[in-house]
Fold each of these.
Amino acid sequence: MSNEATRGIDLASVDRVLRTTRSVRRRLDLDRPVPAELIEEAIDVALQAPTGANSQGWRFVVVTDAAARKRIGELYRRGSELYLQGKTGLSQTGMTVSSEYAADDPRALRMGAVVKSAVHLIENIDRVPVHLIPCLQGRFVQEDLFTQGAMWGSILPAAWSIMLALRARGVASAWTTFTLLYEREMSEILGIPEGYTQAVLLPIAWLKQGDLHPAPRFSARSLTFWNRWGATR
């Protein structure tokens, strides 16, 4: 589909970046440095993301210091242990690693690989050459749903845009949240002041061993309702 608004845009290339950007863990190159200029380019792209009330309260902490990454890695592993033991809030939501999907469920097709890659990152997180922590000015976890939605909507799109911009440049990343279980300790390590909220930890490295491809997913039609929950078109 093409119209005046999309003229001159290479939709195939855009769609490929969108379809193949995902959390990469085992295929992060742990030995090749990522230029600071490339990280800044990706952040520049991300600064075009939506921001509530045009507040632009983003801050981005880029960590390349080996000692700091080692300390972050320790927190990451502690967080992963809590998750695997079912001691985080996610255990109440169903968002946990499961082996009970039906054989034809697209989630079942790659669960073995997902688990192996997650373990690999847990073991090697401190060796990933760049850690990037997007932060947002403000504290809002105790606020109403409207406020939380507006605030998270002012930082998570920027974090995702960083992953997309990196992917377009041959660099991979992973969306990780274990360190949020130790946000205070992370703030102490990195000098993040009170009044800022950490959104995610992105381990960043060059992609190795070939290209990425679309993952098995449900179809849009099977997940989409029109005008009312449960209604199809």
Amino acid sequence: MSRVEPRTTLPLPDTAVGLAAPPRRSTLSRLLRPLLRSWLRLAGVIVLLLVVLIALTAPLIAPQDPNAGDLVSRLAPPYVFGGDNPAYPLGTDGLGRDILSRMIYGSRVSLLVGLSSVAIGGTLGVVLGLLTGYYGGRLDAIVMRLADIQLAFPFILLAIAVLAVLGQGLWNVILVLGFGGWVGYARVVRGQVLAQKQRDYVLAARTLGVPNRTIIFRHLLPNCITPAIVIATFAVAANIIAEAGLSFLGLGVNVEIPTWGSMLADGRTYLDTAWWLATFPGLAIFLVVLSINLIGDWVRDLLDPRMRNVMQ
């Protein structure tokens, strides 16, 4: 009987070892790497964080009462552009109110409207999209026909009509923008559910007798939420612009609450004599909306598997 020689294991070269065990990157590194590579996205994050900090500390950092008027100092030019009064760095409006203080308090309204309306519309739309896509039938037909009817009307005209009936108010604006934005979430999530519910993991869960509620919110929701998150990031910016437009038309927040849109409306009659009344709130809206759009672009790339390898 022949003797079997023991096998010897040859050592792998250093290059093979390096290829076989690449270093792992932490989750934080994967999130921050694409952000740090784009200075525009990084600037957007910094600007938005700065605006959030200003909104949270508005009563502490605002130099004056935003509604306190000084008729003696009405239409005072900005001190930073050659004005005479250092108490008004960005000037005053037609009633002598400090523009800087009103912009600081106006940031609170813009962020509250943008985030709250997206939370309402996103939650409603995602839930309806999950239910209609999973169950189908009459529920799907009714909800989708309601979505088609709403999409047949221009949203800004629908918002004006509703607010003309309900009246001005911060929460009226939030509810109108929130319930008016559910359609996009519902249609996108419904399409995702229709594609996912025939996958093996859903069929296996049904075979094992898992309740429908568990399948919808525990299995389907994590696999269908990515497009809704991307929509939500851009919807925040869109709702901030919508609130500014409604306030500009006099149908938004009450007049005693300073908002960037109402400041634009007040400044339109003084464009020739007091340019700063409309310039500074318009610039604030531009910067915040641009920052949110840049962040939304970053979130989209993070959640898109086709872009994940490119970013890494």
